[in-house]
Specification:
- The complex is a heterodimer of chains A (about 425) and B (about 270).
- Helices cover about 35% and strands about 20% of the residues of chain A.
- Chain A is of the alpha/beta class and about 425 residues long.
- In chain A, the strands form four sheets. In chain A, strands 1, 2, 3, 4, 6, 8, 14, 15 and 18 form a nine-stranded mixed β-sheet that branches. A five-stranded mixed β-sheet of chain A has the order 11-10-12-9-13, with helices on both faces. In chain A, strands 5-7 form a two-stranded antiparallel sheet.
- In chain A, a hairpin with a 5-residue loop joins β16 and β17.
- The N terminus of chain A is likely disordered.
- Chain B has one domain: Orthogonal Bundle (MetI-like fold).
- Chain B has 14 helices and two strands.
- The mean pLDDT of chain B is about 90.
- The chains are: A alpha/beta (about 425), B mainly alpha (about 270).
- The interface between A and B is medium-sized, with 37 and 33 residues.
């Protein structure tokens, strides 16, 4: 807790309560007060972990209440119930939908201690100076706004962030190598009749449509102008091909929540499906072989961040900034990276990971010892390397970002028809 | 009483009706008076298919729950002689209902799975060579779960009406020379009508309004009207969900009105 992070208002509030005027006394009073602060955070299951809330209580003293919801419910809550949360842990493509509604407030990057260390993806969009920006809603395009009251997006680093990036990853298909028994290298394999009745795709329209687009491009059926922003004809064509496959019995099931995808894979009902990194981890930790298969066409990537409710002011807001700074300080980053995600400030996370873990998860090196999940389950033995390799190899091969299309409403209706077909 | 009904039943339905004419964008809902939602609903062939599917589930589930429910109630009412045993066995029927609906439903999933207990048992008995895929994530699984979940709603009202049947009537029928089947068909079934009807209304409305059983047991692959509504709500399309809900409500009311034509429940009770 640095003196810098104490706002005037927080001091005044604390001071008024205790009728103490001296600035010297203020930090102590603040420290007393902050224990009574409760921040309500909601988001998808990926980062809404009780371990984080516990550690916040230990390190910062205040209470963080976590609510984990599925992606659709998160969007719904951020858009329709601004008073039900203080901190929104949402994805960038959700931000694109929700931000213009004015339920979130812009964040002052000068209050973010590690702002300069945040990876380029979230600032100018480039991982390395030579990187090409992938299709879809790239995080930096919706990461900044014009000022403290902005409801727009600006393309340069304006000093006012819509979300503080926390977590991101590159997604691909998960496979059961033991049940497939041959190498898989293309997205098109999802619709390969060989896996009839043994494939699955996720039933979250905004993400599912992107996975479909990857498959269709890989099949050579069509090349999209922008997978993240399809035309109506492209939407019809994409869902048409998948409806056909569904009717032919290609899919065993569709999944909506993380646990469902784990169960489908672990039970062997499905051998190839859209999957998220920690789901792979969860399957592996049951001792079942599961690979997050890197594919020729690249990854579908996503990024998440923390946004503050527009209603948040005073001491609560100070606590929220404190929390954000703590979030980027490395402990959470390390915790998330040991599950296969990436931290927005990898350099700080390094301090909270062993050399072996850092080498395995970030640098794509061979593990020198057993790699365990943060919950203690062994995930890899010495000599194994991470699926897809290093951070640069994985995040450098992003083909598209999760996105919201201009024709989103049309797509959603068509998606509904696909599910009902 | 009228006030309670007004506040908790009529007002919400009126609200839904009003919202069904509104417009929605991705994250906002605009009050309006448009028929867009209904137009889209009635203009899409998917809607009709989904309604047909909903009726299919309701009808098949009704048939099975009725047959099983009637048999169980008949056994309890006429074959179990002592009241103590009747009560004991009746309570036994309710034991599964002490856990939540969802748990009872989800517990079928590992049982029916490709490598589940059912398939491994059948394979070890030599009945089948390869696992049966249609056991899980299929219409079969959906209906199995429905029947399992809702049979008790059939048993209870039928059992109740059976217990009220004057035993002298059955003796009289026997004395008049009727055989067992004739007694069942000409005496017991007609007198059980109110119970059958109440049970049917329970089962049909429950099945037609369900979405979670269909989602889990079909692996999200089949749809009924409830799922259309829940998908719309998940995607913030409240007006469209409200329109679908109004159509579903009207459909269910028509079904119940038809059922009530057969039996005047008020008179019979």
């Amino acid at each position: 807790m640095t003196l810098k992070s104490i706002s005037r208002r927080g001091v005044l509030k604390g001071g008024a309560a205790f009728a103490a005027g001296s600035t010297l006394g203020a930090p102590m009073i603040w420290a007393q007060n902050i224990k009574d602060v409760t921040l309500r955070q909601f988001g998808t299951g990926v980062s809404n972990l009780n371990e984080v809330a516990q550690k916040v209580k230990e390190d910062l003293g205040f209470t963080l209440e976590m609510t984990a919801l599925d992606t659709d419910s998160v969007t719904q809550r951020a858009a329709t119930q601004p008073n039900s949360f203080d901190i929104a842990d949402i994805e960038y493509f959700i931000c694109k939908k929700v931000w213009p509604a004015g339920n979130l407030q812009a964040m002052d990057t000068s209050k973010i201690k590690n702002y300069d260390k945040i990876v380029g993806i979230f600032r100018d969009g480039k991982l390395t100076p030579e990187s090409v920006i992938a299709q879809g809603t790239a995080p930096h395009t919706v990461g900044f706004t014009s000022g403290p009251d902005g409801t727009d997006f600006v393309q340069e680093e304006s000093g006012w962030m819509t979300l503080i990036p926390t977590i991101y990853n590159a997604d691909t298909l998960g496979i059961r190598p033991d049940l497939i028994g041959r190498p898989i290298s293309k997205w098109a394999e999802l619709l390969n009749p060989e896996f009839k009745g043994k494939a699955s795709i996720l039933d979250i329209s905004s993400i599912g449509i992107m996975d479909m687009a990857m498959v269709i491009e890989s099949m050579g059926e069509h090349t999209y102008g922008d997978k993240g922003n399809m035309t109506k004809e492209e939407i019809d064509m994409t869902l048409g091909i998948f409806t056909e496959a569904k009717k032919n019995g290609q899919f065993r099931a569709f999944w909506k929540s993380f646990d469902e995808s784990v169960n489908l894979m672990a039970s062997g009902e499905v051998v190839i499906q859209s999957m998220w990194s920690p789901a792979i981890t969860a399957v592996k930790s049951k001792g079942i072989p599961c690979v997050y298969q890197p594919l020729e066409e690249g990854y579908r990537s996503w990024g998440g961040g923390i946004g503050l409710s527009a209603a948040l002011t005073g001491l609560e807001r100070d606590a929220a900034y404190e929390y954000i700074n703590w979030y980027l300080d490395g402990w959470v980053g390390g915790f998330l990276m040991r599950q296969g995600y990436y931290s927005a400030v990898p350099s700080t996370s390094k301090d909270y990971m062993s050399e072996n873990e850092w080498g395995y998860w970030f640098e794509g090196k061979e593990a020198t010892d057993v790699i365990t999940s943060p919950f203690g389950d062994p995930l890899a033995q010495a000599g194994e390397t991470r699926d897809g390799g290093s951070f640069e190899e994985r995040m450098g091969a992003v083909a598209c970002w999760n996105s919201v299309m201009d024709e989103n409403q049309y797509m959603v209706r068509k998606w509904n028809e696909f599910i009902a077909a | 009483m009228a006030l309670v009904l007004l506040v908790f039943l009529v007002a919400p339905i009126v609200m839904i009706a009003v919202v069904s004419f509104w417009q929605a964008t991705e994250f906002s809902i605009i009050p309006a008076f448009e028929f867009d939602n209904y137009e889209f609903l009635f203009g899409s062939s998917v809607t009709y298919r989904v309604f047909v599917n909903t009726f299919k589930y309701a009808l098949i589930t009704w048939a099975f729950t009725f047959l099983i429910g009637f048999a169980v109630a008949y056994f309890l009412a006429f074959h179990v002689r002592s009241l103590t045993w009747q009560i004991a066995l009746f309570l036994l029927c309710t034991i599964p209902f002490w856990t939540s609906n969802i748990i009872r439903m989800i517990s079928w999933i590992p049982f029916l799975g490709r490598n589940g207990i059912a398939n491994s048992a059948l394979m070890s008995w030599g009945v089948i060579d390869a696992p049966l895929d249609w056991l899980l994530f299929s219409d079969f699984a959906v209906i199995l779960a429905f029947v399992h979940l809702y049979t008790l709603f059939m048993v209870v009202p039928i059992f109740n009406t059976m217990m009220r049947i004057d035993r002298a009537l059955i003796e009289a029928a026997r004395d008049a020379g009727a055989n067992g089947l004739q007694i069942l068909w000409n005496v017991i079934v007609p007198l059980c009508k109110p119970g059958i009807m109440i049970g049917s209304i329970f089962v049909i409305t429950l099945v037609m309004g369900d979405f979670i059983t269909v989602r889990f047991m079909s692996g999200s692959q089949s749809a009924n009207v409830g799922r259309l509504i829940s998908n719309d709500i998940a995607l913030l399309q409240y007006p469209s969900a409200a329109a679908t809900a109004m159509v579903l409500l009207a459909t269910v009311l028509i079904v119940i009105a038809i059922l009530l034509r057969f039996v005047d429940i008020r008179k019979e009770l």
